[in-house]
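user: can you give me the structure for this one chain? tokens are fine.
assistant: on it. calling the predictor now.
[tool input]
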Amino acid sequence: MSNYVEMWKNLGMDLESHDLLCQVLPTAVGDVFLTQENRPKCMDFWDTVIAEVHGIRPAELIEAQKEGRKVFGTFCVYVPDEVVIACNGIVTGLCGGSQFWVPGGEAVLPKATCPLVKASVGARLGRTCPFFRIADMYVGETTCDAKKKAYEILGKDVPMYVMDVPQMKREKDILKWKDEIAAFAKKVEEFTGNTLTAEKLAEAIKTVNEKRKALARVYNCRKSECLPISGRDALLMMQIAFFDDPARCAQMCNRLADELEQRIKDGVSVAPAGAKRILVTGTPLAVPNWKLHNIIETSGGVVVCEEMCTGTRYFENLVDESKTTLDEQFMALSQRYMKNNCACFTPNEGRIEDILRLVKEYKADGVIDCSLKFCCLYDVEKYSVSNVLKDAGVPVLSLETDYEDADSEQLRTRIGAFIEMIDD
């Protein structure tokens, strides 16, 4: 990624520290992805993107800024991308998934804080992530106490807007989220200098829906007994979707789905006969957090689905495209986004219903429920998730980990034993 040194310098990045990160990433990519056999050819796009993750897309964003467009950095699937896109803005994900950034976050946050939050703060304060340097505005949300306090730190030198996510799903909560979306739309209009119209929002809704449909096509292929793509590759595709241009993302995912559907017809599978099909649920897996999938898929299992924000929640449920006024469209957006069953909600039976449904749809032999350390919300829900799955006769393994590799062998032992004990 040496061609981007001048760009990184202009962004005010710590080049010496960033070089250390760049030295580690190629090895990780090679070990996790390039060692796989019989990969879909269309994964070449995501291989290129991840190899140049701090170069290709950041350079595109900077060029867009030169044209007067604003970049909004987000941390959660509840932020409605459609509103930003309709005002000619650009959305990019910001969550950190690397241990490299955690120490920087621990300089200002308690160590007993979720590593995703610590890494996100450390990526900004350490000046080693171009996306955090490029974003003109950060958009947060109230799904997690640690994130809420972290936003106060991140907002000291970057414009920060926080959306207040309801904690329940009553009718009045859906109306409240509609009002939050409307208020966010006014802020986006003001920040971009572009007027939001029903026509522009309708077009943006369709654009994001097409992206969701394309991601769903890839995931539908994972339901096949002849598995045409690994969980690692599907996860990489999903992680990059948070950063990529939505139209290009849809195009590339549809291209991949075409190949996967043909591989199914031809009987081409990436998994050996008898490999146990695993559904993963729990805390989101931000790029480049590939540890869990890599261990599962090198221990006799194969990941067929992720019930999480970096998984089915990101693309399931489309926004109603039939609405013709902004007020109706805001309600349609609210209704769609409030169907996401995040652990921040109480009660949250919807998430358990989703897991049971997805186990059947993806023909999962077992479930691994893995939360990041100090992620209280998902850690607490392990109890109810485990009980319901056991009652349904579905093998389940509950785990806790972080971004460090110190527990990798322990995880490998537990995961390997879990996969072996699943009945044929």
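assistant: here you go. The first strand starts at residue 71 and ends at 74. The domain at 1-27+52-168 is CATH 3.40.50.11890 (Rossmann fold).
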